[in-house]
UniProtKB/TrEMBL annotation:
Molecular function in Gene Ontology: hydrolase activity
Keyword annotations of the record: Hydrolase, Signal
Top-level taxonomic group: Bacteria
Protein's name in the database: Glycosyl hydrolase family 88
Length: 363
């Protein structure tokens, strides 16, 4: 009996310590410190051209971290980035990847009111609207891959809202709906990465367990893009319901695919083939679900526990030096291997975006 009592007391004590250790992750000071640590490490370890899509995701997170922590160092880093880029998008006129960085330009413009920060992007979009897109076999539309829905729509919608120019919102609506019609699987409520990952493609691809291939990061970027669009659109915008409906359906599906450690695997429907929790997809899902709770689109009692588990899991990916480990490298599907030493700037961006919403929740 004494042994049983001792075991129960030890179990309760261990559970108490675990609760104490995880509770710290939700304290405001801890969230800010961790966000700054991750951002500072990444700024010291740059990668890719500053206008690149990877940095588009990173600096979106840096702006969110600056809003959250108010650190001047983060603000200066964004201004330096914009100046180095001459406030231009990437060189490809119609490629969504080259528009992602412009999200941060517009966010900075809203504070500074300096026209040079947005004028190059406005001119690019006007030229893009006037220039027909050249299609191909797997590129029948402008935004033919699902990640594009994070890259370009938030930038276009931010531009339209900022300048009170409906044409930019309408253009984004048109291209977004084309991607939805092409890639959204209404049975799974998930996006295929591109046409080659659909079951009706001439050479169908499946996971080892026979399931369809749905990439965690690709769907994470879609959900991140959806909430960044929804965060901008007026409540009475005529097409807002289109985006809300997608977000709600995807949120429910993503919730069902969360693993025991709170994270999501590189392949959403075959987690056993990719056992490690992946930082960038998990970070974007956490960001999107937390935003949904904070903005009243998702039921708090149902989704806040999902966010809680996810945020604890994400904190476990932060390495002692501050870098966000377990980030899958650049690719187009779940197959690329990654470890605790694997990092990419977009993994940090996703973590910073997640923290910026988690800190707003009522813990």
């Amino acid at each position: 009996m004494k042994k049983l009592l001792s075991f129960l007391l030890l179990t309760l004590f261990a559970a108490s310590l675990t609760a104490q250790n995880t509770n710290k992750f939700f304290k405001s000071n801890h969230i800010k410190r961790t966000m700054n640590k991750a951002a500072y490490w990444q700024l010291k370890n740059p990668k890719h051209e500053l206008y690149d899509w990877t940095n588009g995701a990173f600096y979106a997170g840096v702006f969110a971290a600056w809003e959250t922590t108010g650190k001047k160092r983060l603000w200066n880093a964004m201004i330096d980035m914009g100046e180095a880029n001459e406030w231009k998008p990437g060189p490809r006129l119609q490629h969504a990847d080259d528009h992602a960085i412009c999200q941060t330009y517009i966010d900075l413009y809203r504070v500074e009111k300096d026209q040079k920060m947005i004028e190059p992007f406005r001119k690019t979009v006007d030229e893009m609207i006037a220039t027909p897109y050249k299609t191909g076999e797997i590129r029948p539309i402008t935004w033919w891959w699902c990640d594009a829905l994070f890259m370009a729509p938030p930038a276009l919608v931010k531009l339209g809202v900022t300048l009170d120019e409906p044409k930019y919102l309408e253009f984004s609506d048109k291209l977004f709906r084309e991607t939805y019609d092409l890639l959204f699987d209404k049975e799974e409520n998930l996006y295929a990465r591109d046409m080659m990952y659909q079951t009706n493609w001439k050479e169908p691809k499946t996971e080892a367990n026979g399931e369809k291939i749905f990439w965690s990061r690709g769907n994470g970027w879609v959900m991140g893009g959806l909430v960044r669009v929804l965060d901008e659109l007026p409540a009475d915008y005529e097409n807002r319901a289109f985006y809300e409906d997608q977000f709600l359906k995807m949120a429910e599906r993503i919730k069902s695919l969360q693993q025991d450690d709170g994270l999501w695997r590189a392949s959403l429907l075959d987690p056993k083939s990719y056992p490690g929790g992946e930082a960038s997809g998990s970070g974007f899902f956490t960001y999107a679900l937390a935003w949904g709770v904070n903005n009243g689109l998702l039921e708090k009692s149902e989704y806040q526990p999902v966010v809680e588990k996810a945020w604890i899991g994400l904190n476990g990916l932060i390495q002692p030096d501050g870098h966000v480990g377990w980030t899958q490298p650049i690719g187009a599907d779940p197959r690329a291997n990654f470890t605790n030493d694997s990092w990419e700037v977009y993994g940090t961006g996703a973590f910073l975006l997640a923290g910026s919403e988690v800190i707003k929740m009522d813990w």
